[in-house]
Automatic annotation (TrEMBL):
GO terms for molecular function: 1-deoxy-D-xylulose-5-phosphate reductoisomerase activity; isomerase activity; manganese ion binding; NADPH binding. It comes from the Bacteria. Its cofactor is Mg(2+); Mn(2+). Keywords: Isomerase, Isoprene biosynthesis, Magnesium, Manganese, Metal-binding, NADP, Oxidoreductase. The gene is dxr. Pfam families: DXP_redisom_C, DXP_reductoisom, DXPR_C. It catalyses: 2-C-methyl-D-erythritol 4-phosphate + NADP(+) = 1-deoxy-D-xylulose 5-phosphate + NADPH + H(+). This is 1-deoxy-D-xylulose 5-phosphate reductoisomerase. Coiled coil: none annotated. It comes from Desulfurella amilsii. PANTHER family: 1-DEOXY-D-XYLULOSE 5-PHOSPHATE REDUCTOISOMERASE, 1-DEOXY-D-XYLULOSE 5-PHOSPHATE REDUCTOISOMERASE, CHLOROPLASTIC. 1-deoxy-D-xylulose 5-phosphate binds at K119, S145, E146, S169, H192, S205, N210, K211, E214. Its EC number is 1.1.1.267. Belongs to the DXR family. NADPH binds at T10, G11, S12, I13, K36, N37, N118, E120, G198. The lineage of its organism: Bacteria, Pseudomonadati, Campylobacterota, Desulfurellia, Desulfurellales.
Length: 382
């Protein structure tokens, strides 16, 4: 049995991972980590009886100690001590946001088996993390469905790769005229046509920032140049991505959209576990592919540009400004159309002199977030 630590256990990916792990006998969940969803965490502690619990909001520890006194608790900066524990064999990073970046670094630094869902890690610290992974001979196993698809298709054939074809659902506004974008409400944006995910990633799918992040993630993860990453809108969401080899052959990974599949693959590869619902080509009838509309979805274009200039680490700006914008949009403080306007302005203002030191990224992210809030306050209603 391998001891697994689930960072983000109370979230959408974390809960799915627990469900899959509980069905098998390969893993013992030795630790869980979350932010503030105390009721879900209590439920999980009762079910899993973990040895370790990390709570980002320290105030909750006393309450948990009363209920579960034998657990060893961690908070704030002590996450590194938890990841470093010698009885932690495998780390799943399913934290949302920039809180996930340093934990990825520590998991690789301490040479743990490592599966990554947290997008921000590679978007903000792609070079640092992939360099360290190479040095420490650690494989970063992707959980994101597109990256898992590419990973499954490559399967030992990386040297023949010509390009990857990253599929995108197009989100809920694929067919909405750009003129209508100013009227998009949070309720409309939270309704993804195919995937059921956490709020942040759902809004990012609606703006296609999410696909932009995935371009950057894929670039680092599979060591690609920007011209080797093609984004294709595929509204049926059954082809989760594909790879094209030098002889023109294309191999795609296809299945019904269900995040449990890439999570299970990350946990059990090269083995596969049984899923009841299967994809039927006949039921689907036809598959469609189209170019993304980069004028409508400016954030995708911006992320592609950011990866072209990857030495500048613009992913840090995109990620920090987007996190603030999505939060404000969810609180009805800015309009849907303000999100790209604000992020573009932040890039113009802070494009130069970004850090590539892992321990400075957090502070820089915080600085950019503060500047984004200031910009929002200054330009409210533009
Ligand atoms: N959901 C998907 O289908 C999907 C697909 C591909 C990639 N991803 C990526 O996977 C990551 C997780 O996504 P999700 O949808 O599972 O998110 P989610 O449902 O919002 O869950 C996020 C998890 O992170 C915890 N968390 C939030 N802020 C934290 C902090 N400051 N410190 C420590 N823990 C914190 C949350 O704890 P509380 O519950 O206590 O707040 C929760 O356990 C994201 O980076 C996302 O982009 C998700």
């Amino acid at each position: 049995m391998e001891n697994i630590l689930i960072l983000g256990s109370t979230g959408s990916i974390g809960q799915n991972a627990i469900e899959i792990i509980k069905k098998g006998s390969k893993y013992n969940i030795i630790g869980i980590a979350f932010n503030k969803n105390i009721s879900k965490a209590i439920e999980q502690i009762k079910l899993l009886k973990p040895k370790y619990v990390y709570v980002a909001k320290a105030d909750y520890i006393e309450q948990l100690k009363q209920l579960f006194p034998t657990i060893k608790y961690f908070t704030q900066d002590a996450l590194v001590d938890l990841i470093a524990k010698s009885d932690v064999d495998f780390v799943i990073n399913a934290f949302v946001g920039s809180a996930g970046i340093l934990p990825s670094y520590y998991a690789i630094y301490y040479k743990k088996k490592f599966a990554l869902a947290n997008k921000e890690s590679l978007v903000v610290a792609g070079k640092i993390l992939t360099d360290l992974a190479k040095k420490n001979n650690i494989e970063i196993i992707p959980i994101d469905s597109e990256h898992s698809a590419i990973y499954q298709c490559l399967d030992g054939k990386r040297q023949y790769l010509n390009k990857i074809i990253l599929t995108a659902s197009g989100g809920p506004f694929r067919q909405t005229d750009k003129e209508q974008f100013a009227n998009i409400t949070k309720e409309m944006a939270l309704h993804h046509p195919k995937w059921n995910m956490g709020a942040k990633i759902t809004i990012d799918s609606a703006t296609m920032m999410n696909k932009g992040f995935e371009v950057i993630e894929a670039g680092w993860l599979f060591d690609l140049e920007s011209h080797q990453i093609e984004v294709v809108v595929h509204k049926e969401c059954v082809m989760h991505s594909a790879v094209e080899f030098i002889d023109g052959s294309i191999i795609a990974q296809m299945a019904l959209p269900d995040m449990k599949l890439p999570i299970a693959y990350a946990l059990y590869k090269p083995h596969r576990i049984e899923f009841k619902n299967k994809l039927s080509f006949v039921d689907i009838g036809s598959l469609t592919f189209e170019k993304p509309d980069l004028e409508k979805f400016e954030l995708l274009a911006l992320a592609q540009e950011a990866f072209r200039k990857k030495d500048k680490n613009l992913g840090l700006l995109l990620n920090a400004a987007d996190e603030v914008c999505v939060e404000h949009f969810l609180e009805n403080k800015i309009k849907f159309t303000d999100i790209p306007k604000i992020i573009k302005q932040i890039i113009v203002d802070f494009e130069d002199n970004l850090s590539n030191n892992i321990f400075e990224l957090q502070a820089q992210t915080q600085m950019i977030k503060t500047q984004t809030i200031k910009l929002i306050e200054k330009t409210r209603g533009f």
